[in-house]
């Protein structure tokens, strides 16, 4: 169906919210010699128009726009080779499966989808069509995480017995999941799927293993109605034009962010979506404090904790092995001021480059009988998820060289998803959940 222009791969983007900008910028600015942006599709014309205006800022002409129900026609008319799926998580499978059957390859934002039946649909479509799905797990491309994989593969700590992984989202970044569509588990799968799939994928990749059994406990402790118990709640539904939001450090003021205003505030008339909901308002169905114990095919275990209301942002990974211990600590922000709590992390949009925040990163190997050894990592930066975004788009849109097998397949996406789904099931039942009981993979 598709054809290439001057050897360049023809890409269309479906879902023109904030996350799409990182891919669009990479296509038209960094990889125009190998890739071409040919169309947008979305349920909201105003958002597509905003992206086309921003293309002009990059010196690129506007591209054709299509309503979501014209997606199949767009693939044919624009002779699309690869579809970039950056829609609401629960709709990923709809566009992935349609694109595969139309003869296209797909790059999907994480998570690949939000439940086991949708995941099965995608895997079946891959098998039926022979086309490829790549999941944009950009954390694989972070130089720190690449080095950690090399160290483990080279036996730096011997046989791996266990992993402890703690992720902290501060009250600026964490709160943002409770303002928007992610707050409804039907849309996002909750943070065990939408956010932690990144982390579960890293552990699968680092250990070269698959999850077998998961036990977990999670609750909504801080946001939602719990905010009244803690004294943080203010009485408003959404921040825009709400007097009660004026002094709320958790309120997002979209009118102060030009790009957010264009993408969401100015686009509300078309679909009624409010990007700035009160994080303490009723209707939150996802958890903000989650603990997981997982067992892997190698026999290794992982303890994992995600906190979405921390005073600082960062993460810690500890790997215990038969020859020592590896420790990674990353501090992305040391604290959040009240004035910054209602802003977005780094920049208004993922794709907009912003000044690096204060922080630090240390990677240490602690062998038995020897002093600890600090590992210096080349290429790590304080921008773009540690430099991962640029490295990932280089592989997706240009350089096919990938000796560390960072490009995640549909199967990789399924395995990361299944850890989160098993955790969600364990939240509900209070029992350990066998991953194979949710979805069997070859």
From TrEMBL:
Any Pfam family matching the protein: GFO_IDH_MocA_C
One GO MF term attached to the UniProt entry: nucleotide binding
Origin: domain of life: Bacteria
Residues in Gfo/Idh/MocA-like oxidoreductase N-terminal domain copies: 10-137
Domain Gfo/Idh/MocA-like oxidoreductase C-terminal positions: 149-434
Family according to the record: Belongs to the Gfo/Idh/MocA family.
Protein name according to UniProt: Oxidoreductase family, NAD-binding Rossmann fold
Source organism: Micromonospora carbonacea
């Amino acid at each position: 169906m598709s054809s290439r222009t001057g050897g360049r791969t023809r890409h269309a983007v479906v879902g023109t919210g904030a996350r799409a900008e990182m891919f669009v910028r990479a296509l038209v600015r960094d990889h125009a010699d190998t890739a071409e942006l040919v169309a947008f599709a979305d349920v909201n014309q105003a958002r597509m128009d905003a992206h086309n205006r921003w293309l002009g800022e990059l010196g690129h002409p506007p591209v054709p726009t299509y309503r979501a129900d014209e997606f199949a026609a767009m693939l044919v008319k624009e002779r699309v080779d690869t579809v970039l799926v950056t829609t609401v998580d629960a709709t990923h499978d709809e566009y992935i499966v349609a694109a595969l059957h139309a003869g296209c390859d797909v790059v999907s934002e994480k998570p690949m989808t939000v439940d086991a039946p949708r995941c099965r649909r995608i895997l079946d479509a891959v098998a039926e069509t022979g086309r490829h799905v790549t999941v944009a797990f950009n954390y694989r491309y972070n130089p720190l995480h690449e080095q950690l994989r090399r160290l483990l593969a080279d036996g730096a700590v011997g046989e791996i017995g266990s992993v402890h992984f703690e992720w902290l989202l501060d009250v600026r970044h964490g709160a943002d999941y409770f303002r928007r569509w992610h707050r409804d588990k039907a849309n996002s799968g909750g943070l065990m799927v939408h956010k932690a799939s990144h982390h579960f994928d890293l552990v699968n990749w680092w250990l070269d293993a698959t999850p077998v059994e998961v036990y977990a406990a999670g609750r909504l402790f801080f946001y939602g109605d719990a905010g009244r118990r803690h004294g943080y709640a203010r009485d408003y539904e959404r921040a825009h034009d709400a007097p009660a939001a004026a002094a709320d450090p958790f309120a997002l003021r979209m009118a102060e962010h030009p790009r957010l205003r264009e993408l969401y505030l100015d686009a509300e008339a078309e679909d009624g979506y409010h990007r700035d909901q009160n994080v303490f308002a009723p209707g939150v169905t996802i958890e903000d404090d989650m603990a997981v114990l997982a067992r892997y095919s190698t026999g290794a275990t992982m303890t994992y904790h995600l906190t979405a209301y921390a005073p600082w942002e960062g993460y810690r990974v500890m790997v215990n092995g038969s020859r020592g211990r590896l420790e990674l600590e990353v501090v992305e922000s040391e604290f959040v001021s009240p004035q910054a709590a209602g802003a977005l992390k780094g920049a208004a949009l993922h794709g907009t480059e912003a000044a690096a925040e204060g922080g630090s990163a240390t990677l240490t190997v602690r062998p038995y009988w020897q002093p600890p050894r600090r590992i210096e990592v080349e290429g790590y930066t304080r921008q773009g998820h540690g430099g991962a975004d640029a490295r990932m788009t280089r592989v997706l849109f240009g350089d096919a060289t990938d000796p560390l097998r960072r490009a995640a397949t549909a199967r990789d996406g399924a395995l990361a998803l299944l850890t989160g789904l098993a955790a969600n099931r364990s939240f509900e039942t209070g029992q350990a959940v066998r991953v194979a009981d949710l979805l069997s993979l070859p």
